[in-house]
Each structure stands twice: as C-alpha cells, then as structure tokens.
Amino acid sequence: MDTDILLSMTGIDKRFAGIPALSAASFTVARGEVHALIGQNGAGKSTLIKVLTGYHRRDAGEVTFDGKPFEVSSPQQAQANGISTIYQEINLVPYRSLTENICLGREKRRFGLLDWASMHREAENLLQRFNIRADVRRPLMEFNTATQQMVAIARAIGFSAKLVIMDEPTSSLDEREVGVLFNVIRQLKQDGVSVVFVSHKLDELYAVCDRVTIMRDGRTVKTARMDDIEKIDLVSSMLGRSMEKTEGHATAFTARDEKNIGKVLLSADNLAVGQIVQDVSFTIRSGEIAGFAGLLGAGRTETARLVFGIDRLKAGAMTYGDKRFEPRRPSDAIAAGMGFCTEDRKSEGIVPDMSVAENMMLALMPKLAKSGVIDEKAQQEIVKRFIRQLGIKCSGPDQKVRELSGGNQQKVLLGRWLAMNPRLLILDEPTRGIDVGAKGEIQSLIKSLADQGLAVLMISSELEEVIEGADRVFVLRDGISVAEFGRAAATEDALMGAMAHGNAPVVAEARI
Amino acid sequence: MTGTSPMTRTTARRFDPFDFLARYGTLIALLLLILFNLVFTRNFATIQTLNVNLTQVCTIVIVAVGMTLVIATGGIDLSVGSLMAISGALAPMIFLGKIMPIGNIYLAVAAAMLVSIAVAGLFGLFNGWLISAFRIQPIVATLVLFIAGRGIAQVMTNGNLQTFRVPQFQFIGLGRVLGIPVQVILMLLIVLAAAWMLKRTVFGRQIIAIGGNERAAELSGIAVARVKLLVYAISGLCAGLAGLVVIAINSSSDANLVGLGMELDAIAAVAVGGTLLSGGKATIIGTLIGAMTIQLVRYTLLANGVPDAAALVVKAGIIILAVWIQQQGRAHA
C-alpha cells in the first residue's frame, strides 16, 4: 500500500495567536484507502483537515497530493484539485433540486444556456452508483438526512474527487442509513477513491476503515492498520495513557469520606432520545460526585440535557427525590433544585455584556425580587459573598463578565447555581479551557460542595478527573451506559476497557 | 492569576476614543447641535421652538421606547406604523359613536382610548406569539402586520378620512398642562417608566439577558417565550398610544397616512441612541436622545433653508455614522 501514496502531509505546524494547534503533524493516505482520523476534542483533527483544504494556511510543513506539491488557498480550490470535504452539517442548498446541488459550480451549458437534460442524467447516474433512485428534480429538503449525505458525496465524486474527507458522517444517521453509507464508501474504494473518515464510534472504524491515524495535542501520535490495533490501544492513544498505571495525584481532588454520601437523589432508568442516547441508566446520591466518562459522542452531554429538561425524553424514566421527574423545560429542573454548568460557557453560559453580578444573579433574581423589582442590596451582598468564597478575580461585581478569564467565568457560573442553593449540580467539563491554578481551585470547590451534601454529576473527558474526583463512575459508550465503577474499581484500565469494548463487568452498586 | 485580569488593566489604563464616542457620542452631538443653533438659528432659544421640536418628536419617542425593548431582546418590530393606523382608525369610530352610540362624551373618549390601545396591544401580542411559538424571525413575523395592519385599518374605515372636533379627546394632542404639551408629558412618563423598568425590574434584566445570550437565558430558567410575548405586546401598546396622539393633533384620521414610515424612524432613534441592534444592550434615555438628535438635525437644516429632501439624506448619514461608531466601540472594547 505504501508504494501508492495519494496524500502525504509532513511536519505540519499551525499556530493560532501563538498557541500551537498542530505541531509536526504528519498524515499519509494511500490510493483507494479508507483512513480513519481520530482524536479527542481539540486534538487537532479539524485543524489538520482545514489546513489540507486550504481553509487555514499552514505555518510549516509540506503537502504532496497525487505526486505533486499541493498548494491551495480555499476549500473551493481544493475541491477543484481533487479533495472534497463532506461536513457534519451538510452544506448544500436545501431549496434547490438534487441536480442543482450535485452540479452546482460546474454546470453544463449548451448554446449558452444550461443543459438541464444532461445535468439531470449525470445526477441520476451519480446517485445510481450508490443505489439511490430519486427524482433529481425535487428539492433537496424533501429527502432524509442519509440521502442528503449521499447527494453531498455524489457532488464530491462529480468533481472527480480523488480524496473525500467525511467529518463525522454517521452522527445523524440511523443504523440502516449507516449501512448504506458504508456500502458507498466501499464502492468509492473500489473505484480507487480514497476516504478520510472522522468518527468517534470505534466499531464503525473497524467496519469500514483500512488504517487509522490518532491525533493528540496537535500531534499525530500513531498510525496503524486497523487489523493490527486493539480498541483499547485506540482509546489509550487518544487519551494519552499507556496501559501501565501512572502513579500519583494529577488533580486537586482528595479522598472523600463515605459518611458524607446520603440517599439516592436522582435515578435515571433507560433514558433514550434519538441515536445519540439509546439506553442510559444511573443513580446519584446526595453528597456524591458521580462521574460520566466516555469518548466524544458517547452521549454524556445529551444525557445531562435530558436530566435538565433541555431535551425531552423519548423513552425511559427518572425519579428525583421520591417522585417521578419529568422536566419539560430547564425552569422545571431549576425549580426542582438543579443547576447545570454547560460545556460551552460562551454560547450557553455567560451573557457576555452583562456584569459579574448580573450573570451570577440571573437564575436567582426572580426569587430575590419584591413584586418584580430587583432587590439590588440583597443581590450585591450575595454576589460579594460568592466572589469572596469562590475566589473570583474581578475588579468588582460590576465588571463585564466577558473581561474575565475562563476560570473566573466558570466560577461566576458556579456561583449562579450555588446561589440557588441546589440539591443537584450538573457540571459538564467543568475545567476545560481553564488554566492549571484555577482548575485545582474548581476541583477542590466541587469536593467541598459534595462534602456539604450537594449531589454532583460531573462529565469530564479527563480520565484522572473522573477517577480521582468521582465516587462512582458511569461509562457511556455510543449512547449506552455500559459500566459502573466504585471509587476503588475505577482505574484507568477499567475505564478505558469499558470505553473501548463496553463489556467490562458491572460492579455491584453499593447502596447505603 | 493574581490581581485583576489583564483585560481590566488595559481598559482602566488606556482611554479608548471609540468606546467614549459609542457611549456619549449622541449626547455630545445633541449638545453641539443645540450650541450651533443658539449661535446661528434665529429665535432658537424660545419656548415655542422647544415645543415645536418636542411635539414633533413625541410620537417617534413613544414608539421607539417599545422598539427599544423589542430590539433589546434581539428582535425588531416592523408593524408599529400599521398598528398606529389601526388604533388611529378605531378610536374615532368609537368616540364618534359609529360602532355604538355612547351618551357621555367622556365615557366615549375613555372607551375609545382604552379599546384602541388594547387592540394595538393584542396585535403586538400576536407578533410575539408568531415569534415565540413558531420561532419565526421577528423581521418576517412583524412584516405580516406591517403589510396587513394598514389594510385592516383601511377596511375598518372603508378607506375614508375621518375628521372630528372632539376637544375631550384631542387634549392628548393639543392640550397643555402648566404650559407643557400633554403629549410631551405622556412621552416623558413613558420614557421614565420604561427606563426604570429596564434597569430595576426582573423583567427588564431578563429582556437584556435574552438579547445578550438567549441560550444562556433559557438555561437559567428565564421564560424566554413569555418575555418576548410581553415585549411585543408593549411595543403594540406604545404604537397604539402614538396613533391616538397623531390623530388628535391632526383632528383627522387617515388610515393611509397615520404612522406611515414610523417603524424606520423608531429604529433609527434606537440605533442612534446607542442600543445594540443585535440585542443585549439597551438604553431608553439613549433612545430619547437619539430621537431628539435626529429631530434637531432636521429642524436645524430646515430652519437654515436646507430643503427637506436634503435633510433626509443627512438623517441617513447620521444613522450610518452612529452605527459605525457603535461597532468600532464594540470591536475595541
């Protein structure tokens, strides 16, 4: 295979505002090969792809494609030169016909007019290669996601692509549709077209890919044939763990006293919504830190959204306290004493132009008000108390929250929920994008809150954070809660095993 | 991680002219205009000039207050002009007894005012319902009544001009209290109430939060749909009142003309006043100053012999300048 290399990228460097996103990354794809590209959030997959397609300009390194140096400055140019990308969110024109979408940008003309007959024929032929028979005159929006994806692929092939990059193509497809897509990929492979396949679902990689390249921290850490690599190695390479145990403490979490843990507060049974959460069950007790571990796309955030009433359950049930819990919107969950610090602080957490005080009081405000009028004095007191308690570094309650560092913004959001005096706090990646010092502070804060009886559901992609922080760890894999570990049993090996295979022994739940 | 974050220190240390202009630019412009007029325009420093300018700006300000709240949530309300036409058409029908005769004129006027303002409010509620229940873009949702509203007003009146002489009603457009025109008092009351509401009440804070980050607001338990519903209803109420003031001044109501182009005047006042058109930052007092600045520019040009057509071009220039300064201030902040 190595004799016939289609694409080779070597020594690729890319920095954003001085921070390296790619360092000495290298990536080779053979002709007619399906090559998986995997890595955690922020590992550099999308940056690598964007450098390849000319969306970003690389700082250093070489790219050769089809035997020639490859220099493009836009995705359009890359497409014209044989590299097509199919994005997760399909970027086609919903209101135009299949033909128009497939032929957009390379319309056929006859006597200066568009030659519709031949364009329709070509579109039909392209789709037929994937066993799709559809009226190519109908607008794209009338077709399901899978067909739309096929149209995107047909469009790529129509541009006589030699390399097709698919960015998480299966995330919105059901099982049957995934099967169709895989057949298309195999068809492409037979025709000598190479495919770069980005996905987080390990089983899919084994089903369709020949080789895999694993990225971590902007580097390409490993390339291997799929036949030669175990799932557990994929997981450990992505997470940057060797199978030997690393000793010592990596987080500010310290051992907890079992005495602090009370009765079951929330129990969730067989939750499901769409493809991304299929069957998730877990319980959280008062005073307990329950951890959610899993790869990207395992359904952890989506499960939290169900608990908080942002999305509605399709199946399953929850019990909270002693009652059945059916939140229809976030305010229901808040009224029940829950708080949710989302993963994406910028788009779902802070209101950037509001002050620290206003942000912190956003949820509590109605309770503090006297017939709708804000009690400014009471608010200021609470805000000042939390600024002190949480150690928020700001010039005062009136500073705009967007001027704060990530760690301090996170503390403001913690304050927003703590001010409500909650019973259950959901923390989604509470320390992502936060500098080391603030990270430790937030971790010790979480522990001391749990010691005071708060139930915490902590989602984290950092293994040491869930291992050292959580009293119990639930491992999610492809939308299913596959394993549960107590504090003693939650080792890196055990968690990675469950993430990779999903069949680790379920440890008996220790109820108190 | 000691002391304040680096961002704070920069803003505290360095003076940013754009930030300053974005904050106080309109006020400075207004003061400069007044100064210019004091020097160059004859008879400027008279109560009469003040009253002329204030009465002309009143209806714009009243509508613009509602518009400010709508824009603060990140929306827009194009229907205000048409809602003015509806309330302006409905009120005379009631107090002239065309719908049903009411013996007492005071009762008739009160009923006319309450009903027509309430109807405009209900239409505003309809806007809010389209926007929050069906997630239709505000510009599209309010376009419905922008177009249909004036049609409704014309159908109600058969397209006829309604003229009247009812001093009890026209008090709101022609009357004076302590020498101050009644509509100026109305305007000031509305401005003060709205400014207080935006700053001091939970509702006001929620409006700003929704415009600043709707997702975050929703996740904080704010009833986003309800707040939007109310905001559009308030905008409708303001438009309804403004419609009454206009017909009271004119002693007549023409469904083709009442509130024509008002939506754009109001949006211009909001923009020039310093409210972010993308939402999340709003100032009612700014809107008042914005409306007065636009008014005074027009007056200055007219009083100094520049034709009205040219004044319109200057008005457009001011709006562009104001928005540009805002964006610069934001980019630099």
Structural summary, described in words:
The complex is a heterodimer of chains A (512) and B (333). Chain A folds into three domains: 5-229, P-loop containing nucleotide triphosphate hydrolases (Rossmann fold, 3-Layer(aba) Sandwich); 259-337 and 422-512, P-loop containing nucleotide triphosphate hydrolases (Rossmann fold, 3-Layer(aba) Sandwich), CATH 3.40.50; 353-421, no CATH class. Helices cover 33% and strands 25% of the residues of chain A. Chain A is of the alpha/beta class. Chain A starts with a strand and ends in an 11-residue tail after the last helix. In chain A, the strands form five sheets. Chain A has a six-stranded mixed sheet with strand order 6-9-10-3-11-12, sandwiched between helices. A six-stranded mixed sheet of chain A has the order 18-19-20-15-21-22, sandwiched between helices. In chain A, strands 2-1-4-5 form a four-stranded antiparallel sheet, covered by helices on one side. Chain A is built from 18 helices and 22 strands. Chain A has helices at 45-52, 75-80, 98-103, 116-128, 145-158, 175-190, 202-208, 231-239, 300-307, 330-335, 345-348, 356-360, 365-368, 376-390, 406-418, 436-451, 463-469, 492-501, and strands at residues 5-16, 19-30, 34-39, 60-65, 68-69, 83-86, 109-110, 113-114, 163-167, 194-198, 211-216, 219-225, 264-273, 277-285, 289-293, 315-320, 323-324, 338-341, 424-428, 455-459, 472-477, 480-486. Chain B is globular. Chain B has a domain at 57-261 and 276-283. Chain B is built from 14 helices and four strands. Chain B has helices at 6-13, 17-40, 47-72, 80-95, 105-134, 138-157, 167-174, 182-200, 202-212, 214-219, 224-250, 262-272, 284-303, 308-332, and strands spanning 162-163, 176-177, 180-181, 252-253. With 333 residues, chain B is mostly helical. In chain B, strands 1-4 form a two-stranded antiparallel ribbon. A two-stranded antiparallel ribbon of chain B has the order 2-3. Chain B starts with 5 loop residues before the first helix and ends with a helix. The model of chain B is unreliable at 1-13 (pLDDT under 50). The A-B interface holds A 308, 310, 329-331, 334-335, 340, 342, 347-354, 358, 362-363, 365-366, 369, 372-374, 376, 393-395, 399, 403-405, 407-408, 416, 435, 437-438 and B 1-5, 7-8, 11-12, 200-203, 205-206, 208-209, 212-213, 215-223, 280-281.
